[in-house]
Amino acid sequence: MTKKILIILSEYGYWGEELVGPLGVFDDHGYETVMATPTGGRPRALPPSMDPGFLDPPLGRSVTSEDMARRVREVDESDRLAKPVDISSWVPERPYLSSPGYLRELEAYHRALTELRATVADYDAILIVGGSGPIVDLANNERVHALILAFLEAGKPVGAECYGVACLAFARDWDDRKSIIWGKHVTGHCKEYDYKDGTGFIGVDFNMGPPPYPLEYILRDATGPEGRYHGNVGHPVSVIVDYPFVTGRSTPDSVTTGEKMVAVLEHGLRRYGW
């Protein structure tokens, strides 16, 4: 039977190769892929990720080949991204404690989570694509967290790339508030590769400068003393598998992230890269 992958994208810009890399791997294996965004808006690739002439400031070189730029433009302009799933229509919003009908609303919230588990049963894995956009609408999105938790509870693989890995650090059970990657090994965008200026987004005229937080520091704290963050600075590729999590550091790791997700699904891979 073919596998079905849910791919989560930001509406504020995704890095092209971080979608196209794993997507190409999934396509090659005949997998069905379903795109989803926080409110159902069409995702768009960040312009630098479609420009082979753009020099990545920390690396001092281009990270996008002519061929990859072409492939990103093709996917970005295709119907594959035209009608993504609206996560807000799938996943309930937890009520405020101050709501007059808090108890009934909380009961309705948990009933909706039960329905979400039934929806997740149709999928084999979830992948959260990186880029700067996830900083805005994915990292601290409780609906995205609930979706991740539903996949985790179902025993299904959870993949994330670059700044998409922040979602794993912040996705927590409401009872103990401990990160789901506590005690796990992960990678993600390392401090050495952070921009000092120019962090931008789709749809807003705003240069944030550097990212609002160093993802590496968050991941080091979220994994705890028995887990570990692996930056692998200076290594061309950094992908970590610590089942059920598959994490990729950044752009050059995108294809390998897809390949390791396939290895998890097809061959039972449980550990890689550490």
Automatic annotation (TrEMBL):
<dbReference type="GO" id="GO:0005737">
    <property type="term" value="C:cytoplasm"/>
</dbReference>
<keyword id="KW-0346">Stress response</keyword>
<dbReference type="InterPro" id="IPR029062">
    <property type="entry name" value="Class_I_gatase-like"/>
</dbReference>
<keyword id="KW-0378">Hydrolase</keyword>
<comment type="similarity">
    <text>Belongs to the peptidase C56 family. HSP31-like subfamily.</text>
</comment>
<dbReference type="GO" id="GO:0019243">
    <property type="term" value="P:methylglyoxal catabolic process to D-lactate via S-lactoyl-glutathione"/>
</dbReference>
<protein>
    <submittedName>
        <fullName>Putative intracellular protease/amidase</fullName>
    </submittedName>
</protein>
<dbReference type="Pfam" id="PF17124">
    <property type="entry name" value="ThiJ_like"/>
</dbReference>
<dbReference type="GO" id="GO:0019172">
    <property type="term" value="F:glyoxalase III activity"/>
</dbReference>
<dbReference type="GO" id="GO:0008233">
    <property type="term" value="F:peptidase activity"/>
</dbReference>
<dbReference type="InterPro" id="IPR050325">
    <property type="entry name" value="Prot/Nucl_acid_deglycase"/>
</dbReference>
<keyword id="KW-0645">Protease</keyword>
<keyword id="KW-0456">Lyase</keyword>
<dbReference type="GO" id="GO:0006508">
    <property type="term" value="P:proteolysis"/>
</dbReference>
<dbReference type="InterPro" id="IPR032633">
    <property type="entry name" value="ThiJ-like"/>
</dbReference>
<feature type="region of interest" description="Disordered">
    <location>
        <begin position="38"/>
        <end position="61"/>
    </location>
</feature>
